[in-house]
Specification:
498 residues, alpha+beta, 3 domains, 5-stranded mixed beta sheet
Length: 498
């Protein structure tokens, strides 16, 4: 990914766009699909059209022969001369004409009869499937056959019966199929081009514009002009373009935050390096103070030393946090009651703001945890509660300000609850509860406390969650399991105990 500024706007908005070939791209596929669909529709139309054309051709021959047969029948009982019979047969395109009337069959005209008749067709009642089958049979296999065709003359009971050669019929069918094919090609091409150009403007061009923008944005995500400009349409493409633009704006916002965090991390690392040197000097001075005989100094010095040690540990943890994750917990058996009391001492609750601190942890409850990391977990949560209670006391003098820390063991899991009667957590903070720099509740807060607490709890294999409560305030519950003990270690400990 390149972060440099492009040479010009055209480069920023068009560089790197891979243009596919016409036939392999969406445009070519749409065109081919449109042509195929229209050709299929033409084929569906061609089948009944061919059958209908064949039936009309045969009906025309029957009508012509029926007119001639009516004239000949009117000349009875005279016999039609041979020359006139040949002229009549030639005019009607038949080899024999038979009139069946009142139960009597009369041969009106005859020429050279073929040795056999291949097919017989009754045109008085022809089904659609039968008509299609007969049409394709004639088109594929006809041309040198003699066929018999018969049907009623108008609405009368008289039947005209013909024997004809199918050469002209097959020739007419071939001409009709050729015309339909050429017309289908012309119509499908013209229609496909119209549909293609319309779909290209409605679908393909907007998609290519979005693809071009996505490729440009992937190369220059920091440029404001690389954000997609969505269309005003209310169709699916318009909705997709607006979602794309919104996603890109959010991504740019996240990238700017990440950049600021990286710069902040570098600054904190530099400050932290100098702070560690200052704390090292403070530790040396504290060691000397601890050796004095003043009883007040001797009473305060251990707390001061622990505070400086924790500050130095926090200073080291800042660097480790910048190196992706916290250090692995160095777990040991920790008296949770005493750890909670240490947290209370370091909170330094102000006497101006009355906060009832209640430690309901059993004095013999042991938790398997890293003492420094678990202290940080509890301290961060309790400090957030104290700050919320202090803010509430400043706004309401009659408010109940109480912070209760309780814990109990369930088998191999220790459950710790931190419950306060503060104003509670707003919805925005709940949505970004454990997100650094986003889950802060107080004005000016960073939200790092909860993010660090969660990371440390997860490092212990535990869970931390905000619990819904009936009354006012905030309740966090932490559950930390004991480390699994290897079978040989357990046996050794039991044998030693015995």
């Amino acid at each position: 990914m390149r972060w440099g500024k492009p040479r010009n706007e055209h480069e920023a908005l068009g560089e790197g766009v891979a243009v596919t070939g016409f036939l392999s791209g969406l445009s070519g596929r749409i065109l081919a699909l449109t042509v195929a669909i229209i050709m299929f529709a033409e084929v569906v139309f061609f089948v009944p059209s061919l059958a209908s054309m064949r039936l009309r051709w045969l009906d025309d021959r029957l009508s012509t022969a029926a007119a001639a047969a009516t004239v000949i029948d009117g000349l009875q009982p005279q016999v039609l001369p041979r020359a006139l019979q040949d002229d009549t047969l030639m005019a009607t395109g038949t080899k024999a004409i038979v009139l069946r009337k009142d139960g009597i069959s009369q041969l009106l005209a005859i020429a050279d009869m073929p040795p056999e008749i291949s097919k017989s067709y009754d045109l008085t009642d022809v089904g659609p499937v039968e008509a299609v089958i007969d049409a394709f049979d004639e088109l594929l296999f006809g041309g040198d056959r003699a066929i018999r065709v018969f049907g009623h003359i108008g609405d009368s009971d008289a039947i005209i019966d013909l024997v004809i050669s199918d050469d002209e019929l097959r020739h007419a069918l071939l001409i009709h199929a050729r015309n339909i094919f050429l017309l289908s090609i012309l119509l499908s091409t013209f229609t496909a081009m119209l549909i293609f150009f319309r779909l290209n403007s409605l679908l393909v061009r907007p998609l290519r514009r979005q693809i071009s923008n996505m490729q440009t944005f992937s190369e220059h995500p920091d440029l404001p002009e690389s954000v997609f400009q969505p269309a005003d349409s209310k169709d699916e493409l318009g909705i997709a373009s607006r979602h794309l633009a919104s996603m890109q704006r959010e991504l740019q916002k996240t990238l700017r935050q990440q950049k600021r965090l990286a710069e902040l991390g570098l600054a904190v690392s530099k400050i932290n390096h100098d702070m560690r040197n200052i704390l090292a000097s403070a530790q040396l001075m504290s060691d000397r103070i601890a050796g004095t005989d003043d009883p007040v100094v001797r009473r305060v010095a251990p707390k001061l030393l622990r505070a400086i040690d924790r500050a130095a540990a926090y200073s080291r943890s800042v660097l480790s946090y910048g190196q992706v994750s916290e250090a692995e917990p160095k777990r040991e058996q920790v008296n949770l009651f005493e750890l909670i009391n240490d947290v209370h001492d370091y909170l330094e609750l102000s006497e101006d703001v009355p906060i009832d601190w209640i430690n309901r942890v059993p004095d013999n409850l042991i938790v398997d945890a890293d003492p420094e990391q678990f202290f940080r977990i509890v301290f961060n949560l309790c400090r957030n509660s104290v700050q919320a209670l202090t803010q509430q006391a400043g706004e309401r003098r009659d408010s109940l300000n109480c912070l209760v820390v309780s814990a109990q063991r369930h088998g191999s899991v220790v459950s710790l609850s931190i419950d306060d009667t503060g104003p509670g957590m707003p919805q925005k903070a709940r949505e970004n509860l454990f997100a650094a720099f986003r889950g802060g509740v107080r004005s000016g807060g960073t939200g790092l406390g909860l993010a660090i607490a969660r990371e440390l709890v997860l490092a212990h294999g535990g869970t931390i969650a905000l619990v819904e409560k009936a009354g006012q305030g905030t309740l966090f519950r932490i559950e930390v399991p004991d480390r699994p003990v290897a079978l040989d270690v357990w046996r050794g400990e039991n044998e030693t105990g015995l």
